[in-house]
Amino acid sequence: MGMIIILGGVYVIFKRERPKDKVKNALMQEIDQHSSPPPRDAVSLKPNPVHPNLGEVENSALESSKSHSQGTSEIVNFIRLFKNHIQHVRTTSPELTLFLDEFFGTDEIAMLSQLVVEKMRLTKSDGKQHGHVLSQRRPVIYHISTLPVEMGQTKDWFVHKFGGYTKMLSKLWNSTEVKAADCAVWCNIVYGWTKKGAWVQLSILPMKKPAPIDTSLVPLEFLTPEERQLLGL
């Protein structure tokens, strides 16, 4: 097990050949206990300064956004923040590089940015969590969440709304939509915003075999002491 500092957040990486089974089994126990479909959830965002030179991902997203009437600066700000985060994950967890290259490439990030901006607008307007689940890119499910809180407040948010982060995941995993998709890896993109700024975190959880990766990535900030104990941390 390794601990990695990423964008001010502490991540725990689990290798399947070591404590992975405990993590997976603990999550699956949570999943087995929750079978009712959950409320859809979301992410929050505050724009960062826009830089003049756009890359391939930004141009792809902006071209697509023309038909969705979404603000270009909001999309660019999220993409830059998320790409920076993904690069940190690549650097500190090289075993995830091939997975990230395949499932978080130009097209995927452009697609996700559209939905994130849309959901964040809802979060900003009503102060609630909004989200979306994409299951077309098998064997991966992308779960977008937008939150109106700082990163340090996410644990309390998930406890108040769902009873904890792992309980939110288990409820969603048991939803009819997700079960019908028959995917193996859960990727939760959590985008937060307050007046102090924007942040993004990523969880990657292989939930069943066969899965294209042997590693789970979970932000410690999201977990209660009880959840950390459940996951053997």
In short:
This protein has 233 residues and is of the alpha+beta class. It is 46% helix and 21% strand.
Task: Please describe the topology of this protein.
Blueprint: E1 2-6, E2 9-15, H1 16-33, H2 56-65, H3 72-92, H4 97-103, H5 106-126, E3 130-134, E4 140-147, H6 154-162, H7 165-173, H8 176-181, E5 185-194, E6 197-206, E7 215-219, H9 225-230
Helix pairs in contact: 1-7, 2-3, 2-5, 3-5
Task: Characterize the structure shown.
This protein is an alpha+beta fold and 233 residues long. Helices cover 46% and strands 21% of the residues. The chain has 9 helices and 7 strands; from the N terminus they run ββαααααββαααβββα. Strand 5 and strand 6 form a beta hairpin. Helix 1 crosses helix 7. The longest helix has 21 residues.
